[in-house]
Amino acid sequence: xxxxxxxxxxxSEADIDTPALIIDLDAMEGNLxxxxxxxxxxxxxxxxxxxTHKSPVIAHWQIARGAIGQCVQKPAEAxxxxxxxxxxxxxxNEVVSSRKLARLAALTRMSKISLCADSAIVVxxxxxxxxxxxxxxxxxxxxxxSGGRCGVEPGEPATALAxxxxxxxxxxxxxxxxxxGRAQHLRTEEERRDAIGQAAARTADTVAAIRKQKLExxxxxxxxxxxxAHEAASGVYNELxxxxxxxxxxxxxxxxxxxxxxxxxxxxxxVMSAARPGIAVLDCGHKGIAVDSGLPLIxxxxxxxxVGASDEHGSLVLRSDPGSLAIGETLRLIPGHCDxxxxxxxxxxxxxxxxxxxxxxxxxRGMMQ
Amino acid sequence: xxxxxxxxxxxSEADIDTPALIIDLDAMEGNLxxxxxxxxxxxxxxxxxxxTHKSPVIAHWQIARGAIGQCVQKPAEAxxxxxxxxxxxxxxNEVVSSRKLARLAALTRMSKISLCADSAIVVxxxxxxxxxxxxxxxxxxxxxxSGGRCGVEPGEPATALAxxxxxxxxxxxxxxxxxxGRAQHLRTEEERRDAIGQAAARTADTVAAIRKQKLExxxxxxxxxxxxAHEAASGVYNELxxxxxxxxxxxxxxxxxxxxxxxxxxxxxxVMSAARPGIAVLDCGHKGIAVDSGLPLIxxxxxxxxVGASDEHGSLVLRSDPGSLAIGETLRLIPGHCDxxxxxxxxxxxxxxxxxxxxxxxxxRGMMQ
Lengths: 369, 369
Description:
2 copies of one chain form a homodimer. By secondary structure, the first copy, chain A, is of the alpha/beta class. In chain A, 32% of the residues lie in helices and 24% in strands. The interface between A and B is large, with 73 and 73 residues. Chains A, B: This is Alanine racemase. Chains A, B: It comes from Mesorhizobium helmanticense.
């Protein structure tokens, strides 16, 4: 079953059923505009990552501002976007089962579908599935520029894989996927710039090696909200895959990426117990807000700390006036990490100021397959 | 949208689409039987907690073995159980909005509904809603025996609240909710026994104080999988609310509660990349398995460590044979924490050995309101 929608258009914020995932639409639209302007000025394409928002609605808002398409991590997310009218989708990840590959092959009837590979075994598997569907899939070689997750080594191993893709009759060699994940959360701008500088150099060498094989990398993609300005400036990357900039979160805010984005995503939560002075309990714990990158902050109330999350309870400590939180009062929580917080909800509540302007589904919530 | 079911009855484990939430039915049934036998022998009632399993199917398996009903934390969970035929449901938590209370009042047409209160304000709110629905709600006083979450102080404040409930025309005073949450995860049996001993003493004093007001506590409820034997032995508690015993998890296993329960819940995950020897990457990160109580363990493969979770990737290190994990191979992960792991999935896949015996919904997935 789906959660019931926690609000209806026209309601005031105080009437929203909590916990609820709310968007400050003004702040979000500002973020969308700023990133679109940045990419236009930098002369790079934006293929925003839908693993953050999981919504064809927000995808179309990005595309209307110039994004060329969307990234996803999973075939099930690709399905939700394709069924929602997104026409160009990259699975920026390896897909290894023939059942999942068949679903991607089927989607090529609706949208352009690309995916990544980092092994010859999987390239051959993709070719077999594409052949059986009499279709063509675009495959990018993922190279490892981050140290030890997915991706083949840049240089010769990546080039060999590119050649193998290009020689597969039902595959199109799409280019390179080169995402420096660890750099996103480095705390200083200098650390992030250095990490991306190294990744860009290894990526450029690989592009050159592939060119020697008379193959072009139509896409050289990567980047996230923490680093995209460095990839854009590198002259190597031509597609940026940032996702979190739409919403931001407490962890990205600590890194202060530029241009500045505003916090636009919140979890609205209600004080359910205030049995003694100075402490209070919210109706949102870690089932309702992700804590993997730290506890949430309280929006616009610097006198309150969210000090502990259990499954369905959030414990608050009031540093100033100990009696200033009443049972039934609502607070906006800033998630420590936006992506997995969004993935706990079936509905977005879009706020224009304190008024509910729209309610729409987190359509790819839970689509991990 | 819901996730599509990752398997169908009759399939083998190797054919399940991953990540998937799987139950070892033999192990789970053994756990259900052991807890039922324990409660029968101890002369206490079992009101198992559905915040773990979120499923009317599993609730009925518990009730068929003698459980008198179910606990939930949220009105939306109560709805899913009532609509699934569970006839006696306690919301073991405060409910503070009149919108949520109206939903509980409406459910009294289908099931017996109880809930908790820890303030006079909320008692009066519940009375007003019950009156407007011309129904009666059973209200327990939650006392704080754990130090600083929900609950009024035991003794006089709890007694005053009990009297207020009993004098409300549309409420029934149901007894005491006395859950020592912090004791569940203390590491030694002695620490847990001492903590429950203290909680039981304060609870007993409160029962006696309420009796002086000529009120009886029909229910004295609490306990979890880490401590229930101590509540049962106390002579104070008459209802146990354990939930996690059904599935167990890595954190509860570290505490070794007695009687011993088996791990019955797993996340099945596939190796999606193995680009260099000694490391590999799974298709399940913290969007697919909760990490708030520690990283998952690998079932039946002590030579492999799950060393890092990002959103959709799990990083493995192989301590023995560095080439022994192939792309496409599946592993069973033991969650660090069962409750929030279950809450990420729409479907259970019930396994009898290596064969899929049944597929059924996590019907109250995401029901946090």
